[in-house]
Structures are given as C-alpha cells and as structure tokens.
Amino acid sequence: MGLLEIVFIAVGLAMDAFAVTIVLGLSAKSTRHVIVPSLYFGFFQAFMPLIGYFGGVSFAAQIQDLDHWIAFILLVIIGSIMIKGSFSKEKTEPCSGENSFGHVKLLLLAVATSIDALVVGMTFAFFEVNIFKATLIIGAITFFISICGMKTGKKFGTKLKSKAEFTGGIILIAIGIKILIEHLFF
To answer: CB neighbours of 105 closer than 8 A, spacing ≥ 6?
Structure first.
C-alpha cells in the first residue's frame, strides 16, 4: 500500500472527527479550545490503527488468500455507515460552554470517532505497510482536519456535518474497491 492510499485512508477516517469538531467549534472561545480537541482526535486516530494492526498481524498469515476481500468488506461497511449517518434526520445540537471541552467528553468523542480506524489498522496487517509511518500520517492528517473543523464550526455551524461524513464514506468505499480490483485483476 502506497503513501497516496494511506493519505486517502487518513482523510476518509478523519471525516468523523471533522464532523464532530465542527459542532465543537461552535462553542470554541480560545486557541486552546481549537488545539486540545484536535490533539485528542489526532492521537486516537493514530493509536487505534496501531492496536488493530498488532491484533490483526497475529492471524494475517492464516487468511492471506482472503485479505483483499476482508479489506474490501470492512471498508465498504465503514463507508456505508458513514454515508448512512450523513443522511440522518437527527440534528446534532452544539454543546455550549466549557463543558464541551472537558477531558472525559473529548476522550469519549475521540474514541467513538476512531473505532473505524481500529478496523482499518487490522486491514493494514494484510499488506506491506509501515504501520508507524501510516499511523503518524493518519494522526497528523486528523489533527489538521480537526483544526479545520473547529475553525469551520466557528464560522458555518453544523451545515457541513453530513457532507463531511458522506465524503469520508465515499473515500473509504472507493479505496476498498481499488484494493479488491488490484488483487483480483492485477
């Protein structure tokens, strides 16, 4: 798996964090309120694939002939969930005040938005991926996208939430299709 694919995966994974940080950005009052949530999201988006990779590497050799199908199915499932979520009628209300930036709340949000990264980390175990480089890229991209989300939230509110989730889902599905096509036809 090449650098460009890892970057696209990172962008796709970061869309959940982007959507959440848009909402958090509505109540951001200082630079700290922009940086701290972005650090949480970036760290957990990097940490979860690492956990998934080392969990997945233990059984990767046993299912090597099916790895492309597993990656395809997992990425399509995650992408589909994100796309479905983008059409949700439920409106996310912005959180107000300092409570929006409490460490427990940020921890829960960061973990919740990075569960899909755990699964992606498992798929990395099936490919020749430098996991430390990949997780660094994923964490950095998520950090910067989260900063953009915080700043966007301050300006535009929650209007972009569904578009970010939809785009992230499409990117993950497209990567799953690419992996499947490469293994089946090339």
So the answer is: 95, 99
**Dist CA 116 CA 125 (whole Å):** 15
Q: Is the pTM of this model over 0.85?
A: no
Exposure of 170 in the CB half-sphere (CA atoms within 13 A): 7
DSSP result, 115-146:
HHHHHHHHHHTTS---HHHHHHHHHHHHHHHH
Domain map of the chain by residue range? 3-185
88 φψ region: left (φ > 0), alpha (ψ -120 to 50), beta (else): beta
Taking the C-alpha atoms of residue 98 and residue 27, their distance in angstroms, rounded to an integer, is 8
Neighbour count for residue 134 (Cβ, 10 Å): 25
Count of residues in the chain = 186
Whether the predicted pLDDT of 122 surpasses 50: yes
Torsion of CA 171, 173, 179, 183, to 10 degrees: -160
19-78 pLDDT per residue, tens? 888 878 877 778 888 899 999 999 999 999 999 898 876 665 666 677 778 778 877 887
